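PROTEIN DESIGN WORKSHEET
SECTION A - STRUCTURE
LENGTH: 198
TOKENS:
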């Protein structure tokens, strides 16, 4: 029987299998590297796109911050102008305030009440005078309360006179001048009431 040596064939078969295995392994490694590179490139593209969006958003935010700063500056200018306008209106209304006070005091003082002293300390008016009766003083208090310019009347004291032939009573009264803001508020309330009635 002839002897057939199969060892070289097996050796060749093993080398071929090993070569095939190494080829497949190389293809798998190359495919894995290509896949990893592709995934990395994809995520890198996404990252770059997000960075572009972030830079755009940052630039827009800076523009908006600048506009907000400009708006705040305009609001500050507006508040300053409104404050100046209020001050000018208040100065304008106070320009003739002394005359208005005297005119209003003469309006609220009824017949039978005589003023001997009128003193102004800032917004407070101190009045010293004489009255024929307490009813006349009550009438004066009501007139001050309903005045457009005067407010908060306070009768400090009444002293009955003994020497005068008509028996006049001495009195001291304080009341206050309304501020420009209070008068404006009352005008607005009156306007609303008038509109509501119509």
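SECTION B - SEQUENCE
RESIDUE ASSIGNMENT:
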């Amino acid at each position: 029987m002839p002897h057939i040596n199969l060892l070289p064939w097996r050796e060749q078969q093993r080398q071929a299998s090993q070569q095939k295995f190494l080829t497949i392994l190389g293809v798998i490694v190359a495919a894995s590297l290509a896949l990893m590179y592709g995934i990395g490139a994809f995520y890198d593209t996404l990252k770059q796109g997000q960075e572009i969006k972030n830079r755009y958003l940052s630039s827009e935010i800076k523009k908006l911050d600048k506009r907000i700063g400009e708006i705040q500056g305009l609001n500050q200018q507006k508040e300053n102008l409104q404050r100046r306008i209020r001050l000018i209106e208040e100065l304008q209304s106070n320009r003739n305030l002394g005359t208005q006070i005297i005119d209003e005091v003469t309006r609220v003082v009824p017949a039978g009440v005589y003023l001997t002293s009128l003193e102004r300390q800032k917004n407070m008016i101190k009045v010293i005078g004489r009255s024929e009766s307490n009813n006349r003083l009550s009438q004066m208090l009501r007139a001050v309360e309903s005045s457009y310019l005067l407010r908060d009347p306070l009768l400090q004291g009444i002293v009955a006179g003994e020497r005068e032939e008509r028996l006049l009573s001495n009195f001291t009264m304080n009341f206050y001048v309304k501020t420009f803001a209070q008068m404006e508020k009352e005008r607005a309330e009156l306007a609303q009431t008038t509109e509501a009635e119509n």
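SECTION C - NOTES
The radius of gyration is 49 Å.
Helices lie at 7-94, 97-108, 134-145, 180-197.
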